Each structure stands twice: as C-alpha cells, then as structure tokens.
Amino acid sequence: MHEAVESVVQRYVDGCAAADAAAVADAFDQNAVMWGYLGGEYVTMTGAEFAAQVVGAAEPAGPDYRAEIHGISVTGDVAHAILDERGFLGADFRNHFGLIRRDGVWRITSKVFTTV
Fold it and tell me: Which InterPro entries match (predicted)?
C-alpha cells in the first residue's frame, strides 16, 4: 500500500522536475485543492490550476532540485504523505499531501504547503 502512495507522489515529483504539467495534473484528483504559504503570502488553488499555471509555466528543474518523500501513512483508502522539496522554483518547500484511493487508483486530493 505504501508503495502505491509513494508512486503517485513520485509522479508529482517527476512532473515538477520535468515541468510536465500533464504528469502533475495526473497525480492530482480532479477535485484536488491546495493551500499554503509562499513566504508570507497565503496561496490557494486547485491541483489543475497548479499543474497548468505553475508547473506548465516553469522551466525544468536544475541540478539543485531535490525531493524526499517521507512520513507515509495509509489507513484503508486514505493516506497522508510528506514531501520535502529543495530548490523548486527557487525555494524550499514542505508539502503535506492527503490522498484517496478511488476505483483502485491513488490520487492527491489535497496539498498543504509552506516554504521553509
């Protein structure tokens, strides 16, 4: 179960690193929402908006980009994962993902993040 959750978070990471909006959009559920802080600024948008407007407008990540998935917990068809990113769009992030397995497929349904 943990491997399947890790796989969808890794799809998000790979998509962000490659500036591949379609891959990032595929990691998110169609109803996904995200909230967080970019520095001191509160930001909220849908997963689809993040994929199209942020990832789709970015350049592929450089050699300084690093991502570490940790803290995965799974309870039935819901899960939580923590992702630390270093050097993504010039900042470091801690992301908390909520995930749901629906029709046998895991997707990110929520992302709460902050710069660190």
Answer: FrzH/put_lumazine-bd, NTF2-like_dom_sf
